[in-house]
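Supplementary Methods. Inverse-folding protocol.

Structures were first reduced to a discrete structure-token string of length 425. This string, shown here, constituted the complete conditioning input.
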């Protein structure tokens, strides 16, 4: 059976922990989109790790981990993350890279930085990982597929020459940067070929057989619904689809094989980067939640930037679960809220003087203001609790209010950063 773990809102929900936990019962874990522009933090018996490029199943020796064809593959990050794992005593992961995957080139990262500098105050808050230029090149048919790294030199030199005709026009005339050289790009591709060769395979055939053999397959999403380029807060979004439905494309699976979609929902809101964020709040109150939040403070796993803080947003979370097609939800970081006397929840928006319960497109979303309901806190540490009925009554009321209003049943409640800090409902 195929399951997907995806984010309900802006990302940063704790998908890495949920994927790592569900990997115990999986045969295969697949990253199907995105690149190294976001990280999944995992705490286990080996320590604390932040994975940017590798699937979260790499800590399980019995699992085959796959970099799917929909991923933006940073070869440097891929290799360095594997080295970090093995240097820290973790067995070398069983990992396969799709031969249809494409590679992030150094000039993608360079272009990302140059473009952010060019647009200055209108910048998107990019991580400068090269993701937008990568996907632009992929769909503009000037990217490099992993399979092409193993082609003959004449083929590659012709491809590179055609690519650089476009790239150098941009670099020279728009950015005033040095032009790229064909031989340098060829040498870099050969370096990537040698590094990737032990991992490359036809993952489509591998997964087709796995489905026929009824293997347990887990799709691991990056970021969340509100960062999707079609259904998110465009244009302040990422450059690949963050939805479970894209898992079929980014992994190479029949869409009807995805039987369960677990949408990870945070017990409060946080976001990195620019864009509409209705329930955002500021000042000392935000600083306190940021300091207490996550597994060591609310700071971007890739950039280290302080995350923007907000109260739980029913409207955004309900929409995020719906657009994912979620069959159930996992509610995370509930324990973080234990210090509060009262906890606001954004239950609706006010748009131009009218109360609305739907999530509008960005131009309207920017004009929305939050409408809050305040719920009582529980003022006691809930870490270590494993039985739902043992939670304080106010914690259960908070969880059940969210469950009822996001229209997706909460089946898991995370009450701590470790793999075992989980309550099933």
């Amino acid at each position: 059976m195929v399951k997907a773990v995806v984010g309900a809102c802006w990302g940063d929900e704790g998908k890495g922990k949920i994927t790592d936990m569900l990997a115990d019962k999986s045969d295969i874990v697949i990253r199907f989109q995105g690149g190294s522009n976001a990280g999944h933090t995992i705490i286990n018996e080996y320590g604390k790790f932040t994975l940017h490029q590798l699937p979260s199943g790499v800590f399980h020796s019995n699992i085959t981990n796959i970099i799917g064809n929909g991923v933006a593959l940073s070869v440097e990050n891929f290799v360095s993350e594997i080295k970090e794992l093995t240097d820290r005593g973790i067995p070398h992961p069983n990992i396969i890279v799709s031969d249809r995957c494409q590679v992030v080139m150094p000039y993608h990262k360079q272009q990302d930085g140059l473009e952010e500098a060019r647009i200055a105050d209108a910048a998107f808050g990019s991580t400068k990982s090269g993701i937008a230029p990568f996907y632009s090149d992929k769909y503009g048919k000037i990217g490099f597929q992993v399979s092409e790294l193993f082609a003959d030199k004449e083929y590659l030199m012709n491809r590179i020459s055609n690519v650089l005709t476009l790239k150098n026009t941009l670099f020279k005339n728009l950015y005033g940067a040095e032009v790229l050289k064909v031989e340098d790009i060829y040498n870099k591709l050969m370096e990537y070929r040698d590094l990737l060769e032990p991992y490359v395979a036809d993952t489509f055939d591998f997964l087709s057989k796995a489905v026929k053999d009824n293997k347990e397959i887990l799709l691991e999403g990056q970021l969340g619904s509100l960062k999707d380029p079609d259904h998110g807060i465009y244009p302040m979004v990422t450059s690949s689809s963050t939805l479970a439905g894209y898992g079929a494309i980014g992994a190479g699976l029949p869409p009807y094989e995805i039987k369960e979609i677990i949408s990870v929902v945070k017990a409060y809101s946080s976001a990195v980067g620019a864009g509409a964020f209705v329930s955002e709040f500021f000042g000392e109150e935000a600083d306190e939640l940021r300091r207490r939040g996550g597994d060591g403070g609310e700071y971007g796993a890739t950039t280290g930037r302080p995350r923007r803080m907000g109260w739980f947003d029913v409207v955004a979370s309900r929409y995020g679960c719906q657009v994912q097609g979620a069959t159930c939800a996992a509610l995370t970081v509930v324990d973080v809220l234990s210090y509060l006397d009262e906890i606001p929840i954004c239950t609706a928006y006010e748009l131009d003087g009218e109360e609305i319960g739907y999530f509008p497109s960005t131009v309207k979303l920017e004009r929305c203001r939050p409408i809050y309901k305040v719920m009582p806190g529980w003022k006691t540490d809930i870490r270590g609790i494993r039985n739902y009925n043992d939670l304080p009554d106010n914690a259960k009321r908070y969880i059940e209010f969210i469950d009822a209003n996001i229209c997706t049943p909460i089946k898991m409640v995370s009450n701590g950063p470790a793999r075992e800090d989980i309550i099933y409902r």
